[in-house]
Amino acid sequence: MTRTVTPRRVFGQLDSTNAEALRLARSGVRGPLWIDAECQTLGRGRLGRHWMSERGNLLTSYLFAPKAAMENLHQLSLLTGVAVFEAIESLAVNNSDELWLKWPNDIMLGTAKAGGVLVESTTFSDETVVVIGIGLNVAVAPNVSGVATADLRSVLPTTVNLSDLRIRLGETVEEWIGVWSCGDEFTKVRTAWLKKAPKIGTPLTINAGGDVYSGQFAGLDETGSLCLTHPTGEVRCYTFGDVSRTSID
Ligand code: BTN
Is the pLDDT of residue 121 over 50? Predict the structure, then answer.
């Protein structure tokens, strides 16, 4: 079977690959299309944060128009985490057992963040266009106040360049989007994600908009929300928030 290669637009500098993708969507582009930048001046992170976008790191967005229900689109963060993990793992030489996924969209190396995913969408009459933005600290771990960051130099061989990684990532993201089937097969994504996540029972804390809850990781529900077992035994699932491992002193 022949595989169609998705076109790519490569920029030296952009404000943000996600912003460029959304501009293209407004001008009628429906993808699929990859947009790459060597650096970004206004990289966008989750929850309105800035994404430090150094040269040498991977900065890309995938624009497409899935026929999925709006409520399934947040599953794409988890799906992309799995795809990024697999792309890195398939090219890695060392240290890939230090890689794990932190709910909902972080790629971690040991205790530090090595990458993140930002899914944005916009609707035109009855058509939804989705942009999956991926930032990976390949060569540079940026200095971000309050966040431990890592680069992937200890994982990826020096022979792997950004272009190899973009191509591999393109394959894994598109494969997983196929598997996902607009959310009908989210269970497969969830199963794969859980294999790369902390073990069930790991003590976690979630800060959900200023409300902080601690409990033991109890998996993901059928929609992809993070579930914690609280000390009372009650299991609660959260749709958003920042997760950290609870330190047990
Ligand atoms: C996060 O906060 O963890 C998500 C970060 C996502 C950053 C990427 S870099 C490429 C794409 N363009 C952006 O402006 N943001 C995403």
Answer: yes
Task: Give the atom of ligand 1 at the shortest distance from the alpha carbon of 115.
Answer: 3
What spacing in Å lies between the alpha carbon of 234 and ligand 1's midpoint?
A: 34
> Which amino acid is present at 105?
N
Question: How many C-beta atoms lie closer than 10 Å to residue 38's C-beta?
Answer: 17
* Mean predicted confidence (pLDDT) in 126-152: 95
Show the tokens assigned to 133: 């933005």
pLDDT in tens, 52-99: 999 999 999 999 999 999 999 999 999 999 999 999 999 988 878 899
Task: Say how far apart CA 213 and CA 199 lie, in whole Å.
Answer: 18
Return the bridge partners of 75, or none.
none
| Contact of 71 with 223, CB cutoff 8 Å | yes
For ligand 1, residues with CB inside 6 Å are: 16-18, 40, 43-46, 49, 51, 59-61, 105-106, 116-118, 133-135
Nearest C-alpha neighbor of 78 from the set 218, 203, 234, 221: 221
Determine which helix (DSSP H) or strand (DSSP E) holds 235, and give its type and residue range.
Answer: strand 235-238
Please state, in angstroms and rounded to a whole number, the distance separating the CA atoms of residues 221 and 128.
Answer: 25
Query: Under 8 Å CB-to-CB from 242, ≥6 apart: which residues?
Result: 47, 206, 207
Torsion of CA 129, 237, 147, 194, to 10 degrees: -80
Token pair of 19 as six digits = 């912003």
135 pLDDT above the threshold of 50: yes
Structure tokens, 199: 């073990």
